[in-house]
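Minutes, project check-in

Agenda point 3 was the complex the collaborators sent over. CS summarized: two entities, 581 residues total, and the question is how they sit relative to each other. Sequences were read into the notes so everyone works from the same version.
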Amino acid sequence: MLLLPKGIALAENVPTSKIELPVALNKLRNSSFCGYAEVDLLSAVGIFLFIDGRLISALFKRGDTNGLRDLDAIKTTIECLVLNREGAFSVYRISKDISFAMLAMLKGDVVLNAQEMKLIDFRGVLEKIKTERMNACLKVYTDDRAGLIFYRDGLPIGFFHDTAREIGASQVEVQKIVGLPGARIDLLAINESEETSTMVDLNDLIDIAHVWSVAKENVFSPVADSTAISATIKTTKDSSPEAQPTKNLVGLHAGLIEIVVTHLGKLGQTLSERELAKTGEPKNLLVPENLDELLVSLEKGAKLLTSSVKTRQMQDFIRVEVARYS
Amino acid sequence: MDSILSFLPKTYNTLDVDAFTIIQTFCWFIAAVISFYFSMDNARIWTSIAIGFFLVFWSVAYQLNPFAQSYYKLTAIHYTIGTIAILLISHGFQEYFIFTRTLEITGSKRTIYLTALGLVVASSVFIILNPKPSIYVLRNYKMMNQTVWFFLSCINIYTIYKIYRELKDSPIASGILSFALVFFFALIWKGSSLYLTLYQWDKEWLDIIEFTGETTDVAQYAAQVELAHFLNRAGVLLSGLSVGGTFVYLFRLLR
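CS then shared the predicted structure for the full assembly.
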């Protein structure tokens, strides 16, 4: 069973028919979110893990299969979501350390897989985690129960089990699961650098909004394979702006509109669309003068809709968003 | 006062001031200071609204102006300033509504300041150039002020509702809605005052007929008169307090 830790619920079991996944994920990105979004499609689940607003990892898991990761997971989750709108969307905020440990759970190196407790030296495993200063997720489970222990630099930072409402500091319940007959453990560890700024942000590799719109337009098209994803993957930073396909910048306008709407409300959409139409093509925004002009125009309207602090915050987010495309 | 400062014009009528008058004028003074301060560092639309409320203080302050009781032209100017105030305020909210539909903002704040000053000066010149208003004419000026306020308050409440509908999910929405409360209190204030004036139960008319010897039915309708007076006092106090409170709230929202 896939057991995910529950942090502070920002949204819980919201019908997927009521959400636009790219919009929701964009909001999490813009708010420097730490935690994960879960798309529960009854027979499958999609997980999007964020650290400081960066989409660090994605997982798509159906049943007890290994599941798909990162770009494939994003694509498959979107396709399944478009086909099956009867799912539930949840967002849980967790601490940065737990998010990091959860990264191990999603795509860490398998150290132990389904090892029976009675066949291993559990104390030795814990000692190994400590001495090697692992960033890891230890899962203990039986057919009926499951528990998680999160480690950061070899030290336990959180405990969670299937009957818990949130991540806790007490290991009592997880230890009980360890002692149950037939208990097994999985240990996954990750060796990523602590600097999350060096982690790849999947948003830089794939235009989720574009994948979403393509999936909605071509609902019954054959399932695209990884090579097709490359058509929507953003080019690397080394390529010149002229060589960058225009469609990669389509997401820029959508992203900017989303930022403005988040800060100004519904009227922000009309305001931003009008001002963006004046700037012309998305690539024009890569010119600093045009961007400044846009920011000044948005500020004029924003003055009547929100505070100056939020306006400045909105402008900062816009600059960051544009910088990601330049 | 004119005996202390001999260069000042003489006052012929004493100031009849009670505690309530001082309190209400003080409330509007605070509202005026906050409004004017608010107008300085904000968008042009807010300037129109804020300057309008600033001018309301000047129309209310005539009650404490010793010269206003002696020089009726000054009293008339006070009433006219009050009328200009609500025109400016209403203009601001109309512009705000247009903004929510078109997202266009044109014009400068200086225009608002100069227009407000120009209107006050022009109406003052008009009054000065005309004959000294009698107490009957002054009452007409007052009725003009009350009528314009009453009907524009109704319109403003509806305009604020429409504005709120457009920017319901914006951070400033609750601030806009607070003005509906302000105009509700203003409606009570000016509405009750207009009611008394229309039926000739107001203080000015009663003062007039004291000299003319005419009769009045104010004693017959004491309950209505008392209620209207109560609403008038409550309205002027609450509108002053709510204006100050609303601008303070807006200040926090827009900071």
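Noted in discussion: Residues 246-264 of chain A form the longest helix (19 residues).
Follow-up: revisit at the next meeting once the mutant set is ready.
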